[in-house]
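sorry for the late reply, my laptop died twice this morning and i had to redo everyting from scratch. anyway the thing you sent over, i finally got around to it. pasting the sequence first so we're on the same page, its 241 residues, then the predicted structure underneath. double check i copied it right bc i was rushing
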Amino acid sequence: MNKKVEFQHIGKMPYAKAWDYQTELFDAIVQTKLENRKRTDRGEEPIETKNYLLFVEHPHVYTLGKSGKEEHLLLDQQGLEKEHVEFFKINRGGDITYHGPGQIVGYPILDLDNFFTDIHKYLRFLEEAIILTLADFGIKAGRIDGLTGVWIGEENDPNPRKICAMGVKTSRWVTMHGFALNVNADLKFFGNIVPCGISDKAVTSMEHELGHAVNMQEVEAVLKNHLATLFEMEIFENQNH
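ok and here's the structure:
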């Protein structure tokens, strides 16, 4: 079991380019796993599978998961162009969400055979890393039964607010897509969608909750540490990606 995880901070990147890059890494891991089955059949040693953790910031974009409804996007093509927002239908779970500047988007591309083969546990660990990170910045957050992501306000709170959206894809226990944490995101862009298909709950950010902008690099460092601890990852950085 290879617990080494290559961390790459890929900075600002258009959504389509990041999706292609994720897919390339994801497909290579799946290919290694298929090759390992043949090697095992031949009595040969399997090849170690790689793991990655990508942090990225996207220009304004709406993405619709495969179970989502297109009517949850409240803008037509003209409206998207006017707002300078892109729109993609993608292969993760979940409904529609927004990505943009001031948001930490995390893409763990992990072979869960290296950690644990339990998708429910995987999602809970991602949520827990976000909850612990927010707590370190003085924000109390948690989960709401039946809804993914991380929320502020308890289940019976009249005004629960989503601060982190999640949507993942897995195949052969390899993960892609991930989470989007609103740090200093412009919340007005959530007004053009029914976020995650939920019409009666608000969206928030760390900046909105704290009343001041937050240093993105500090949040990234804390979040990366919590992910490493929860998953027992050995994170290393590749400066030459």
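The chain has five helices and twelve strands.
thats about all i looked at so far, will dig more tmrw
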